[in-house]
Write a structure and sequence with these properties.
This protein is of the alpha+beta class and about 575 residues long. It has 25 helices and 11 strands. The strands form 2 sheets. Strands 1, 2, 3, 4, 5 and 6 form a 6-stranded antiparallel β-sheet that branches. Strands 9-8-10-7-11 form a 5-stranded antiparallel β-sheet. A hairpin with a 2-residue loop joins strand 8 and strand 9. Helix 8 packs antiparallel against helix 10. The longest helix has 24 residues. The protein is elongated and about 90 Å long.
């Protein structure tokens, strides 16, 4: 076994630093990826050509094209049609789980997992009310179902694309679109059955809507009497805008006009209802200090959203710019004429001033603003109950046929995967399934940069000698036994994805997989497929997406992840060796 070179130590430090920064969440993920690439070039670990070559790979182009296809499926109404027509009316919890997980897993084999889960969250929230179940009993299953289905094709998950890209560069040939299909399908079925068998482990949690319903628990409503000395003054002059313990979120006039957010130069009138959010006991001191009185009835109500006010519920995404920040330190509210009313975490409302809460991924926000446009912030916040795009029958049919054509062209080896995806994207544009503007907005440049950054990390792992050292260590540990080596490799990959992004683990482990297979004189496809499955089945990102809407706590994921991962790990070892013997 060799020793670590300077380049290897630099690479290790870069990987650890990147992980720490990603966990902290104060710097956008794409900025961290660009910084990582820059350091690897400046330090000499990678040449400029090697680093820039990662941006020009077929796989990176594929990620961009897939973004366009996902956008076309959304804007043409295909995904909405699936949600509206495949859920049905189940009569039991088991039936509900199957009706959810089967379409989710099927869609995830061709569409980005995050897009599928995001689309189903709102449907699940409405559906759970009919079943008299909390969303928490249904959202973890769709998160895991998306991971299980995504592994069934090369384009189903970003980690599959990373592994396929490394195989293409190393072996000079491409993997077929359905290379992992049969073993992936068997593992997917086992996973779905396991979720149903483990249904009692799925936590029963109060949803954020339940925490927001009792508005009197987190708002104070004070009435301005006709003899109040501050009538005629602005809220700033009367020191009633931002006060000790909270802030003013809206004024309701005597004629039921709702003013929110409240401008600092808004005048106070007799009969005004002043609605504050923050620390209740401290806010009640305003009664005595400003000659106000308790409101005889509450006018701030979640049920009146459509009638008098615009309220929005949204979850902070994993890579959101809000993560790690406080609203009072940002210009978000002022620039978008919106006010933060309350924050929940793990299904429980945080009992402090909302604007001073340092936000985390998975936190649920209650926002109010009449002119606020949720679609401007979909990269940072996952909004509940956003209006779905209408389903256009002809456009939906055209988009569906184009996707079927794309799959057929690739499956029957008429054209390579990338070419079939590009053809499909062009046809979507030609047949107006997506407009030029929608196409441009569908391309997730942040995702592309992160993906290229992961490929650069993988390249650095290879050229710095880390991959060889890890392969030698694996070989020594398993005493040259191919089966033991495969089990150990898959186990390490699965554990790593619990703390590191799946595409990053795939980029790090792919070179190790190929070297280990060669040194053990084993089938390299066995190691590559095992890596795809062990990395792709973890649902770290989608679990974060559903944690806010479901009200999950930190430990909830491990209650179901541990038994599921054990079942899936054993299944992967058996099934992969059945189709691709060592």
């Amino acid at each position: 076994m060799g020793t670590l070179t300077i380049a290897a130590w630099i690479t290790i430090v870069v990987i650890i630093t990147k992980y720490v920064l990603m966990v902290q969440g104060r710097i956008p993920a794409e900025v961290i990826s660009l910084g990582t690439i820059t350091i690897l070039i400046i330090s000499g670990v990678l040449t400029t050509d090697e680093a820039m070559g990662c941006f020009g790979t077929e796989t990176v182009v594929m990620v961009g094209v897939l973004c366009i296809l996902v956008g076309a499926l959304i804007h043409s109404g295909v995904l909405q049609w699936v949600v509206n027509n495949m859920l049905g009316h189940p009569t039991s919890y088991n039936s509900a789980l199957l009706r959810l997980m089967i379409p989710v897993s099927l869609l995830s084999s061709l569409v980005n997992n995050n897009a599928v889960v995001a689309l189903f969250i709102n449907a699940v929230k409405l559906w759970s009310k009919k079943l008299h179940l909390p969303p928490s009993k249904l959202l973890y299953p769709i998160s895991y179902a998306a991971g299980y289905g995504g592994v069934c094709t090369i384009i189903g998950t970003s980690s599959n694309l990373v592994v396929a890209d490394y195989w293409h560069k190393s072996m000079g040939k491409s993997l077929d679109l359905f290379f992992p299909f049969l073993p992936g399908l068997i593992c997917c079925i086992v996973g779905l059955v396991a979720i149903i068998l483990l249904k009692k482990v799925i936590p029963w949690r109060k949803s954020p809507e339940d925490s927001f319903e009792s508005t009197s628990d987190y708002t104070v409503e004070l009435l301005v009497p006709t003899d109040c000395p501050y009538i005629g003054e602005t809220v700033t002059e009367a020191r009633l805008h931002t006060v000790n313990g909270g802030h003013l979120v809206e004024i309701v006039r005597f004629d039921r006009e709702v003013i929110s957010p409240v401008p600092k130069d808004e005048f106070i009138l007799g009969g005004d209802h002043l609605v504050y959010t923050g620390q209740i006991n401290t806010l009640l001191e305003l009664r005595d200090s400003h000659g106000l009185v308790n409101a005889t009835h509450h006018v701030f109500s979640i049920e009146e959203v459509e009638q008098k006010r615009k309220l929005y519920m949204a979850t902070v995404k994993a890579n959101s710019k809000f993560k790690g920040n406080r609203m009072c330190d940002l210009d978000f509210e002022d620039e978008n004429s919106v006010v933060l009313v309350a924050v929940t975490r793990a299904g429980e409302r945080i009992k402090t001033i909302p604007r001073e809460v340092r936000l985390r991924a998975g936190d649920t926000l209650l926002l109010e603003g009449p002119n606020f446009n949720p679609r401007d912030f979909e990269d940072d916040l996952l909004f509940f109950d956003t209006v779905a795009l209408p389903v256009d029958g002809l456009k939906t049919l055209r988009a569906s046929l184009i996707i079927i054509l794309m799959v057929a062209l690739s499956a029957f080896n008429v054209v390579p995967i990338l070419n079939s995806c590009i053809i499909a994207a062009l046809l979507m544009l030609i047949f107006k399934c997506i407009s030029p503007t929608q196409l441009q907005n569908s391309i997730d440049w942040n995702l592309i940069i992160q993906f290229a950054g992961a490929l650069c990390i993988g390249k650095a792992i290879e050229v710095s000698g880390i991959a060889q050292l890890m392969s030698d260590t694996l070989l020594a540990t398993c005493q040259s036994n191919a089966l033991y080596g495969f089990i150990l490799f898959c186990g390490c990959a699965m554990l790593a994805t619990e703390v590191i992004q799946d595409s990053a683990v795939a980029a790090i482990a792919a070179p190790v997989a190929l070297m280990a297979a060669n040194q053990l004189h084993a089938n390299p496809l066995t190691f590559m497929l095992g890596l795809m499955m062990c990395v792709g089945y973890t649902s770290t990102e989608t679990n974060t997406m559903v944690s806010g809407p479901a009200g999950y706590t930190f430990g909830d994921n491990y209650r179901i992840a541990v038994p599921l991962n054990i079942i899936m790990f054993i299944t992967i070892i058996l099934v992969v060796n059945l189709f691709y013997p060592l």
